[in-house]
């Protein structure tokens, strides 16, 4: 394996450990950190700017498949997954997740970082203000829920995230208890990540400029590095929840997201 690829793999091991810790501690998807980190790391090994965001988004979603699967399994064991909710959201979520890869192919490469920046800015605002309004209203009709799921899936896939930051407030708004909203969002995140990942794999197959060790737009050395450590450190992050001021840390993290968003938008 080339030295530069080995260097990237080692950097992704470090990145994965940080991502896993924050995911467990703050309950956030790792994509919010993975995508901008890969946008900085990948050019160091010669990845072309034209496919930089595609590879970053696809690899982020692939890493979320691993972590969200473990999270969804834990929530299922605890009885936190409301399958009646997941069932009405799933069609839109899957179509939206696949649609994100299609839109990413259609958007000119130089505008993709700006699309990501806008989505992250909105997520940072939501995280800072904790916009979770609970109502006693029921979920909308299956068609309206599918459309809502489609929007969540599309935006999440375009940002390379699992979508918990969008799904939890959406379910909370319709009166789903927070514990079940978070548990259901973990399974929804898995569906977003796997559909988005599949879309990016097929979109990238046959592209002549892809680097070695790629599966479509998914860059395997980065994926293995991130997944290897993030799946270990997530449990340590969860164990720290009761010991650290997570509300304060979440607001600090949202400020970091503001900075990342502005930097991506200006680049």
Automatic annotation (TrEMBL):
Localization terms from the record: Cell membrane; Membrane
Keyword set includes Transmembrane helix: yes
Membrane-crossing segments per the record: 6-39, 51-72, 84-104, 111-131, 151-173, 185-205, 217-237, 249-266
Membrane topology qualifier: Multi-pass membrane protein
UniProt entry keywords in alphabetical sequence: Cell membrane, Membrane, Transmembrane, Transmembrane helix
Similarity comment text for this entry: Belongs to the 4-toluene sulfonate uptake permease (TSUP) (TC 2.A.102) family.
Protein name as annotated: Probable membrane transporter protein
Source organism of the structure: Photobacterium piscicola
Taxonomic path: Bacteria, Pseudomonadati, Pseudomonadota, Gammaproteobacteria, Vibrionales
């Amino acid at each position: 394996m080339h030295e530069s690829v080995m260097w990237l793999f080692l950097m992704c091991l470090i990145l994965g450990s940080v991502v896993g810790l924050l995911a467990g501690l703050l309950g956030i998807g790792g994509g919010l950190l993975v995508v901008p980190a890969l946008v900085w790391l990948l050019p160091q090994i010669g990845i072309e700017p034209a496919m930089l965001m595609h590879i970053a988004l696809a690899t982020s979603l692939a890493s979320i498949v691993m972590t969200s699967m473990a999270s969804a399994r834990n929530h299922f064991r605890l009885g936190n997954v409301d399958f009646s909710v997941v069932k009405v959201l799933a069609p839109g979520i899957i179509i939206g997740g696949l649609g994100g890869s299609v839109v990413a192919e259609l958007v000119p490469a130089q505008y993709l970082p700006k699309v990501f920046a806008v989505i992250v800015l909105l997520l940072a605002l939501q995280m800072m203000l904790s916009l979770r309004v609970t109502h006693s209203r029921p979920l909308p009709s299956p068609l309206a829920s599918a459309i809502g799921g489609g929007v969540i899936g599309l935006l999440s896939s375009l940002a390379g995230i699992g979508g918990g930051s969008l799904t939890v407030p959406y379910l909370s708004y319709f009166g789903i208890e927070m514990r079940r909203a978070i548990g259901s969002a973990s399974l929804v995140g898995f569906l977003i990540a796997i559909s988005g990942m599949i879309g990016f794999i097929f979109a990238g197959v046959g592209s002549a400029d892809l680097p070695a060790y790629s599966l479509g737009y998914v860059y395997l050395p980065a994926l293995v590095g991130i997944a290897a450590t993030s799946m270990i450190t997530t449990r340590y992050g969860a164990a720290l929840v009761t010991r650290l001021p997570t509300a304060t840390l979440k607001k600090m993290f949202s400020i970091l997201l503001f900075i990342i968003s502005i930097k991506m938008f200006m680049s």
